[in-house]
């Protein structure tokens, strides 16, 4: 179902033992909020680094302390991070940790109670976003409805589809297909591809509600 997208659109982090150990902690229903935040931020940092690696680089030569020339590269400029409120804001500090002074936009999309469709409630984006590379941040990509709505907001602002990198902690084949079929030039960076969605659109084996667990609004916890 997603093999073609894995080769073209989806960049899955190497499934190392370290990454599996991090996922084991954050997926545990009994994990403390302190552990959930700490270890999920480690995963997010890995994802942000992988996302930045997909952006363009330019040649740059420098002179080393011994007087030799190192033929290096210069990072891409004009980057903006756009978290999808609220869960996406959990990834903001990870981006700021590796991109000093990065500009941050915001998009709020929620499902309309009557139509059951994603609805844009708020956006605040840099005026020159059309000329920037966008890292769209949301820790969960399930059905793809919210992601597609957010991507369309960026396109309506003039952002090129190929300049958008969607960074998410976990996703499922259904979500990948929904996004990539509509936006074939989008690139997705993720640390895990789940088995499937259940009848309630929850990912299996899943991680729970990422935003609630990260921000401490999970009613099951004090």
Description:
- The structure is a single chain.
- The chain is α/β, with parallel strands linked by helices and 222 residues long.
- Helices cover 32% and strands 28% of the residues.
- The chain has one domain: Rossmann fold (3-Layer(aba) Sandwich), CATH 3.40.50.
- The chain has helices spanning 3-8, 17-27, 33-52, 92-98, 145-156, 173-182, 210-215; strands spanning 10-12, 58-63, 69-74, 79-85, 103-104, 106-111, 118-124, 133-137, 140-141, 164-171, 187-193, 196-197, 203-204.
- 33% of the residues are buried.
* Low confidence ranges: none
Largest sheet: 9 strands, mixed
Secondary-structure-based class equals alpha/beta
Instruction: Please write the string of helix (H) and strand (E) elements.
Output: HEHHEEEHEEEEEHEHEEEH
Q: Helical residue percent?
A: 25-40%
Q: How many strands in all?
A: 13
Mean pLDDT: 94
What is the count of structural domains? 1
Name the overall outline: globular
Total number of helices: 7
Beta fraction of the residues?
25-35%
Query: Can you identify the CATH class?
Result: Alpha Beta
Euclidean distance between termini CA atoms? 41 Å
Examine the secondary-structure arrangement and name the CATH architecture: 3-Layer(aba) Sandwich
CATH topology: Rossmann fold
Evaluate the radius of gyration. 18 Å
